[in-house]
Amino acid sequence: MKAMLFAVVTLSSLVGHNALSTEAGSQPTDPVWRAYTRQINLLCPEKHLDHLTPADLRDALDGYKERQTASDQEQMLKAETSSCKGVTAGASCDNVGDIKFASHRGKLTPLARDICAHVNKLPQ
Predict the structure, then answer these.
(1) Quick one: which of 121, 113, 120 has its CA closest to 43?
(2) How far apart, in whole angstroms, are the C-alpha atoms of residue 97 and residue 14?
């Protein structure tokens, strides 16, 4: 019985960790990430932007950030820092921080439009 309880508790904690994780493989479990994915698939479905590499998405997000107010740029940097706490390397946590910032500010649709426009400018 104790072994079964331990297994259930361990499995529950692992599932809970994955649902909140910012690793690339678990991003779809995050409600904000799912909302972002819906927006980009609505605005430019032919581009399959939900399959962008973290580095390509980072490039698009950096372009978006450059066009924001100084205050929003500062808040985006704080969101990135918060999202990447405890992470040693990688663009995914920065990306998630910026997308969550845009979502909390009600700017998810403009962000998705900007990413679509950025990708449309890239050479095929």
Answers:
(1) 113
(2) 22
| H helix and E strand count, the chain | 6, 0
CB 108 within 8 A of CB 35: yes
Dihedral angle over CA of 20, 17, 48, 99, nearest 10: 20
User: From CA 39, how far away is CA 50, in angstroms rounded?
Assistant: 10
Return the domain boundaries, the chain.
2-121
For residue 15 the two structure tokens come to 């599932």
- Of 36, 57, 42, 49, nearest in space to 102 by CA: 36
pTM of the full structure: 0.69
Q: Give pLDDT tens digits for 2-53.
A: 444 333 333 233 333 333 344 444 445 789 989 999 999 999 888 888 778 8
CB atoms within 10 A of CB 86: 5
d(CA 96, CA 113): 17
